[in-house]
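Q: What structure does this chain adopt?
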Amino acid sequence: MEHLSKHQVDGRPGHRFQSSRDQPDRVGAASTRAGQQSLADVSVFTEWLTASDQGQTHLANLLATRFRGEFKVAFRAWEATSPLTNPSVPPTPFAMPIYQSVENHRAGELQALAAQQFRAATTANQRSDNYVLLTVLFAMALFFGAICTRFASLIIQVWLLGLAILIFLVAIVISATFPVML
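A:
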């Protein structure tokens, strides 16, 4: 077995399932970061709103410099709509279409990747099971072919050899329907 590469003996279907199982952790981490960032945006925005309402312009300007890049873009767009005097604009920058969370987008991409990897793992697992079945069929053909010589009766020998040939042919036909991946 030393001459086989790692990929030939490490069980690729199992590896693919493990990879697809790890993705929800990454999705959860990205979603958590997105939630934390949104919470930080809400917190700083609320403080900015309070400072602005109380006429603390210096503090409001300082807080506005602390906005994260994603939120700052949405805030500037929201501010340009004159939200304090125009009732038809979104109530907060968070309702602006321009407010997009990179981490939420990343979580969505990771979720799609996890689903894709799971489908690939399921396919690889089924392919592996199919080849194990073929191995068993070929082993049965060899077994019946070899054991037929142990019997004295010619009828039993012919029947066992016929069974071995039949199993071998069935295995060949089945293997011809399998995809070949090198």
